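Entry for pyridoxal-5'-phosphate complex. Fields follow.
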Amino acid sequence: MPSSPLVTLRDIYLAQSRIEPLVRRTPYAFSEILSERVGSQVGFKLENLQITGSFKIRGAANKLLSLSDEERAAGVVVVSSGNHGRAVAYVAGRLGIRATICVSSRVPLHKVDAIRTLGAEVEIVGERQEDAEVRAADLVKNRGLTYVNPFDDLEVIAGQGTVGLEILRQSPKVKSVIVPLSGGGLISGIALVMNSTDPAISVIGVTMERGPAMYLSLDAGTPVTVDEQETLADALIGGIGIENQYTLEICNRFVDDVILVSEEEIADAMMFAYSEHRLILEGAGAVGIAALLAGKAEAREETTVVLSGGNVELGRFKAVMEGCC
Ligand SMILES: *Cc1c(COP(=O)(O)O)cnc(C)c1O
């Protein structure tokens, strides 16, 4: 990566003004009880309350609004573990762009239904994310659709960075931000904002023990492929892309630490969010709380935990609340 960053603070401000009509400025909520537990000031950035139920609409909106007229006319295709597909489907619907969503059969049915309801075409291909990717590449090559990468794309990263701009407004003294991590689009955008503002602000990624692709890739210094495993944090399943262009490098430079949490810790965090705050979080959305409750992440004065999504199927949510795992 050249010394001048590929995504600047200006790009993220531009994204903010571009996507404003389509996204919600989500609330920030101080958590007295979690602050007491960890001995410092902790607040939540409530992206679980975002339109479509996760932050992914920010990157999707910035990407689709950056397309040329020709690209818009041809339509877009995405491969998604759910929330990205849902976000692209929603934005495409609002902008009158045709969207095709390729998913693997692993993706929970309620997420597929939600995408169809938004008017997008859904293709269920194979058992692994990779199978869906092959189909999407085919549509790009043979039908001229634009592929919308869920994280490794400069417009997507700039869009997710708008979460960071909002955190700075809502908690100007923030010293530490804890962010759910999969492919690294969300944390890259937030880390670029925090680093441009004050390099002393720490940015911590949290992901699950079961298949932590970015964690292993940072360790190896190159993209590492992981086996996909069942996890409560299903939105975090998947690799970072064998040809990763941006997020590995940005995480390597600007992310201070990556923490792994167990299934039990994720379940405890979902339970905590519901019983103490009446917040319904999906597993991926709860990993930041999990890291704090488990004592794995150090809370510095003024910590913000990003609660990245709330799209959990009712049956699974009930099972977790009843202590299934
Ligand atoms: C996609 C997603 C993440 C991870 O975002 P990346 O940009 O891939 O790191 C975290 N939480 C939720 C709810 C998601 O949908």
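NOTE: Strands lie at 28-30, 42-46, 76-79, 99-103, 121-124, 146-147, 176-180, 202-208, 257-261, 303-307.
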